[in-house]
Amino acid sequence: MQDVVLQIENLTKKFSAKQSPGRALRNALFPSRAILDRSFVAVDDVSLKLSRGEVVGIIGHNGAGKSTLLKMISGVVPPTSGTVKIQGRVSAMLELGSAINPEYSGIENIYYYGAVLGIDRKTMKSLEEKIIEFADIGQHINRPVKFYSSGMKARLSFAIVTSINPDILIVDEILSVGDAAFSAKSAARMRELIGSGAAALIVSHSVATMTSLCDRVVWLDEGKVVMNGPPSEVITQYSATMMMSSAARKQHLLDLISTDKSTPKAAAPSGKTEKKGISEKEAARSEPPPAMIVNNGGASIEAVEIVDEKGRPTRQLSSGQHYTIKITAATERVINDLSIGLSIRTRNGDVLGGQIYKLKNRKAPGTVNVACSFLNPIVTGHYYLTCDIRSDNRKNIHHIIDLVTPFTVLSPPKNCVGQIDFNLSWSVENDQVAKVS
């Protein structure tokens, strides 16, 4: 069992808003409409362990308590109650530019951050070249940070924070402001730190980031832990719940919090399987994630399958071949403006593409079979289908099934990159060779 580098127990943070003199006077004059308590609980009795070499993601809607939790762990905000036990050095990127002083230049900020952490100047000097190279912001490194763009601040902050080889790295959504190339480089740097024994807590709204980097995901709602478990399972439940009606979502959250789903699975905290020496995260990627199901009634998706040109069901497709997706839907009552949505997703949950098909008004309960044919442009990889049925100009959700019908695409070797083969047709329109005198 790996060392626990972070342990928080029953952590709670309550914020109280002081009343203005005007509010106090209104409360005294109109006691029946008085606002007596404007306090709120941002984080409510949260307990969590983080082991060396483990990455834990935190998800939740805006205001769920994610940032407040990270600030308490980092020591920026004191908890109202509960304990935080840390073994080792913590590097945190809580807000854009939080690790740097805007009045200082990029170079000066390297030493400023080191001083904040109690690291001597000689050590930071030895890291200077490495930080400058990773940040890759050119001559701007000598200019005050207050003139930097958001992307440049993110580059400098991440380069400085990760240079000191922390025991715990905390990142709060900051990498979303960087460009794609830097995001990829940052993810690689995080994997390098984790591989050397660091642990990480990250907040992100990116499904791809959560599934590719995290061993576990914690879902917060109104400061409470709703679920704590494998990324695919938690993200699936979270996405499904966010699509429910307000009343259904509230009851579903209460059910989840009150069940044992809010505790981690029995797997070892290290996320490793000792027998084969592979991580639980890698093993999970070889299995289809569970289907996300939103069922508000009225209509439903009964079946989804892929067939080849001969009508045979298949889960192994080839690029450049014709296929048909068959969908069976059912209605329980008369529903107008009904439509079926279909999309293809990658294993990380990213949408490659899709389409919406409008059905005729349903005059009576029953079933309907629809089919869509396509010439497969997708290249080698593992994919899934998402299918839904809605009404009222797509505003009313009846049924959604996500990450179902897993299929694999095999492509012949071609000179194409990415996930889509556009089957481009090339030609030379003008080829002039300079005459040699």
TrEMBL record:
<comment type="similarity">
    <text>Belongs to the ABC transporter superfamily.</text>
</comment>
<keyword id="KW-0067">ATP-binding</keyword>
<dbReference type="Pfam" id="PF14524">
    <property type="entry name" value="Wzt_C"/>
</dbReference>
<dbReference type="GO" id="GO:0140359">
    <property type="term" value="F:ABC-type transporter activity"/>
</dbReference>
<dbReference type="InterPro" id="IPR029439">
    <property type="entry name" value="Wzt_C"/>
</dbReference>
<keyword id="KW-0547">Nucleotide-binding</keyword>
<feature type="region of interest" description="Disordered">
    <location>
        <begin position="259"/>
        <end position="294"/>
    </location>
</feature>
<dbReference type="GO" id="GO:0005524">
    <property type="term" value="F:ATP binding"/>
</dbReference>
<feature type="domain" description="ABC transporter">
    <location>
        <begin position="6"/>
        <end position="247"/>
    </location>
</feature>
<dbReference type="InterPro" id="IPR050683">
    <property type="entry name" value="Bact_Polysacc_Export_ATP-bd"/>
</dbReference>
<dbReference type="InterPro" id="IPR027417">
    <property type="entry name" value="P-loop_NTPase"/>
</dbReference>
<keyword id="KW-0813">Transport</keyword>
<dbReference type="InterPro" id="IPR003439">
    <property type="entry name" value="ABC_transporter-like_ATP-bd"/>
</dbReference>
<feature type="compositionally biased region" description="Basic and acidic residues">
    <location>
        <begin position="272"/>
        <end position="285"/>
    </location>
</feature>
<dbReference type="InterPro" id="IPR017871">
    <property type="entry name" value="ABC_transporter-like_CS"/>
</dbReference>
<dbReference type="InterPro" id="IPR003593">
    <property type="entry name" value="AAA+_ATPase"/>
</dbReference>
<dbReference type="InterPro" id="IPR015860">
    <property type="entry name" value="ABC_transpr_TagH-like"/>
</dbReference>
<dbReference type="GO" id="GO:0016020">
    <property type="term" value="C:membrane"/>
</dbReference>
<protein>
    <submittedName>
        <fullName>ABC transporter ATP-binding protein</fullName>
    </submittedName>
</protein>
<dbReference type="GO" id="GO:0016887">
    <property type="term" value="F:ATP hydrolysis activity"/>
</dbReference>
<dbReference type="Pfam" id="PF00005">
    <property type="entry name" value="ABC_tran"/>
</dbReference>
